[in-house]
Design a protein that fits this description.
CATH class: Alpha Beta
Strand order of the largest sheet: 12-11-9-13
Bound molecules: calcium ion
Helix content: 10-25%
Strand content: 5-15%
Number of strands: 14
Largest sheet: 4 strands, mixed
CATH architecture: Alpha-Beta Complex
Radius of gyration: 19 Å
Structural class: alpha+beta
Length: 377
């Protein structure tokens, strides 16, 4: 289970400088696979309420902007077929409807079997205290003073009882956050919701195409203008100890609090990270270009196996996109549409959620600019 693996990693690394963390998300140490919970499509495969149709097309995927990381290069041409996409991140209200209908229990709510995960951790990893074997998740807990930015364990705290219903742990709730994005969602949880809703997770290419909102080759979802507090819910001030909350929110914000992009999509920059369907390889773009020189890549679905230096023991590390309320240029400018991050599929954190896409037929009068089959989605 991610949560235990993550806390075991924190225990293993506490007191010793870690490699520079690439972003505000901690690396994981192991992967346990949980079978995705599936229910018959409760809402039907063609439900498109709260979604917009993206006709598809060709765009430049990736970035070599000064804020970009190496895994965003090389920039290459990609074509995606048309698809529907949720206009917002999945909210607490939407996720509650799923749980109410199915009784689904998220990974963060499930107990931990130490023996089961021990074999997947680095040899000699100490067994965490018993309280850390109880259901829980990692919660962002800002220090009150500047800290070494390599020490992600200084702002992530294993919190027994933390889950989507209790975002900061016991004593906290979502009563006044039903229109906020759901958090503490593992990839497996997101897939379970999508299957129930008759939808699926976007591919990484679909997500980036949608996030760009028709602004091909721009740094941000709104263009090349540097980020400001009116653009998105990120972190202002000094990370991780002093958030000025100039954008109005220190953690999640209600969806639609900031302007939509050119496709009418909200929070494609910041608020919470969003899971995609692809496995992650840091060198995936270079591999694509080498295998398909001079031509656009059609409907890429990601590599067969993951290669994630941040999670070296996770063979199925999955992509998430868009950054979160923790993004700050001093540390993690992942609110940019090309920025990539990944985690094992059983990872859940207090800034990680998702949105869905659908392959329902285009609206009347619209045509998908389909390019061809290539990778099926
Ligand atoms: Ca903020
Ligand atoms: Ca987002």
């Amino acid at each position: 289970m991610f949560a235990l693996a993550a806390i075991a990693t924190l225990f293993a690394q506490a007191g010793q400088p870690a490699e520079p963390a690439p972003c505000c998300a901690p690396p994981d140490a192991a992967t346990l696979r949980f079978a995705a919970f599936t229910q018959p499509d409760a809402e039907g495969a063609n439900a498109t309420e709260g979604m917009v149709y993206i006709p598809g097309g060709e765009f430049s995927m990736g970035s070599t902007d000064p804020l970009a990381r190496p895994d965003e290069a090389p920039v290459h041409r990609v074509r995606v077929d048309g698809f529907w996409i949720d206009t917002t991140e999945v909210t607490n209200a939407q996720f509650k409807a799923f749980v109410d209908a199915t009784g689904y229990q998220t990974i963060a709510e499930r107990p931990v079997d130490w023996e089961e995960i021990k074999a997947q951790l680095p040899p000699g990893t100490p067994k965490p205290p018993e309280e850390n074997l109880q259901p829980g998740s990692l919660v962002f807990t800002p220090p009150d003073h500047p800290v070494d930015l390599r020490r992600f364990d200084l702002w992530w705290t294993w919190t027994t009882g933390a889950c989507w219903k209790h975002p900061e742990g016991p004593g906290t709730n979502i009563d006044d956050r039903m229109d906020h994005p759901v958090v503490h969602i593992a990839w497996d949880d997101a897939v379970a919701y999508a299957q129930w809703a008759g939808k699926r997770l976007p591919t990484e290419a679909e997500w980036e195409f949608a996030a760009r909102g028709g602004l091909d080759g721009k740094v941000n979802t709104w263009g090349d203008e540097p980020i400001g507090p009116s653009h998105a819910n990120t972190w202002e001030g000094h990370f991780p100890d002093a958030n000025t909350t100039e954008d109005g929110h220190d953690r999640t914000a209600p969806v639609k609090s900031y302007p939509a992009n050119g496709y009418g999509l909200y929070d494609m920059a910041g608020n919470v990270w969003e899971w995609c369907s692809d496995k992650f390889r840091y060198d995936e773009y270079a591999r694509r270009v080498a295998a398909n020189p001079g031509v656009a890549i059609v409907n890429p679905i990601g590599p067969e196996g993951a290669v994630d230096p941040r999670n070296p023991r996770s063979p199925i590390s999955r992509v998430h996109r868009g950054g979160s309320f923790l993004c700050n240029d001093s540390y993690c400018a992942s609110y940019r549409p090309s920025a990539r991050m990944a985690a094992p599929p059983d990872s859940a954190m207090s800034h990680l959620g998702f949105r869905c896409v659908s392959d329902a037929p285009p609206p009347a009068g619209e045509q998908s600019h389909d390019a061809g089959p290539e990778g099926s989605r």
